[in-house]
Amino acid sequence: MDTMIYPSLPGLKDAGLFRQAALIGGQWLPAANGKTVAVTNPATGAVIGTVPDASGAETAAAIAAADTAFQGWRKLPHATRAAALERWFALMEENAEDLALILTLEQGKPLAEAKGEIAYGASFVKWFAEEARRIDGSVIPAPAGDRQIVVLKEPVGVSAIVTPWNFPNAMITRKVAPALAAGCTVVIKPSEFTPFSALALGVLAERAGIPAGVINIVTGMPAEIGAELTANPVVRKLSFTGSTRVGSLLMAQCAPTVKRLSLELGGNAPFIVFDDADLEAAVEGAIASKFRNGGQTCVCSNRILVQAGVYDAFAAKLGAKVSAMKVGPGLEPGVEIGPMINAPAIDKIARHVADAVAKGAKVLARAEVPEGGQFAAPMVLTGATEAMELAQEETFGPVAPLFRFETEEEAVRLANATPFGLAAYFYTESHRRAWRVGQALEFGMVGLNTGSISTTVSPFGGVKQSGLGREGARVGIEEYLETKAFHMAGL
Ligand code: NAD
Asked: Residue limits of the Aldehyde dehydrogenase domain (predicted)?
């Protein structure tokens, strides 16, 4: 029973979508000790609301609620779970404008991009509602004649879902939809920077008739919540999207209880432009892959490698587009690049640019930025080299460094010279080169002549230190299913 009073958020059609409480076993609750965390609008610095700063005790309560709900949810017919997900999907579509507004207010991205994320996020709910109907096993004829081996697919169990701030809606649905479809229940810990998008999804799940305790949302600072989620033996699975640093920490914390893991971690995507590329298309692809969400995307191209013969022409074309980019608050019409998420993000970008310039890079193009707020200037840097910090780690901002290479072998070597392996892109008109390079790149996702690779129907995930497992596509639900071999003898 919901007895709390919620202040609205200006501009929302449905004030009830803005919740400043945690969701535990169907109850909207404050932290037991009354502590809260403020959430700010990165475009203005204004506080837009607060959420409970939950402790280990609330997290344990959420896990217990998920465990209780699991006993009923797992036994429902697949079609019943699918129907609940379909209703949740329909409500996300109906409330897309409000969800996008909440997203832009807490995360900063331009409203058009926020609407795109809501559609993308909702698409996973639809997709896995359909996949729920197709969970099946198999029967293996046993060597002994009197028996059959029945291979059953069963839900893993209570799943912890830990998500980042850069896609506060879609990173949740990409995990929660397959979990619920498989029969698992979840405890979500959204980023402390963007909890309101998660809580709005919780409201819609409730309205969709998803039973109490199937989705629990614990908000607040991460260390204590994470410690409970990883140590508690009732949690059988952790699905995490975020940095490699935190992912590997959580992996270690999960080791004593040997939990199943899905990890979607950081990237350092190369974007290779060969001499024989369609340059106009390559510039468009570079803009799409580099500047989406202001460069704060794990699959953003981080290193743009350009063959010597087209280097200057490509740089000039890209520079012209980048210097004309409109930067500002995400709610302002026409804005292409919103604010960065927080002050440390701005500092990291500035550090990378200063290091590159000190090591010989030149600023070829730079867009105007408004005064105040957490804005970073979109930039093109020429003369980038492997020795620079921006070659080694994600800049996570609107900075496009151009590296020069001579041969295909050199391009592949440079592209693979990273401990990360999430996304890579390359542009060529040669089908032989396309096949060779596509095979040689050590990445979980590769785009040929495209800068856009994120879609519900394709497996999403990385190799090396970019993670474990795949999300979306037909394989996405497997992450939440166990395989049981049931040997039936004496038949
Ligand atoms: P982050 O690792 O700082 O945080 C991710 C989540 O982990 C947040 O919810 C945070 O509160 C939580 N967290 C932090 N410390 C924790 C702890 N000790 N215990 C439990 N939880 C903890 O990452 P971020 O800054 O929110 O997101 C940006 C990173 O995410 C980038 O590296 C980006 O590449 C990556 N990312 C990857 C994908 C992908 O699919 N591979 C998608 C989006 C973002």
From this structure: 28-485
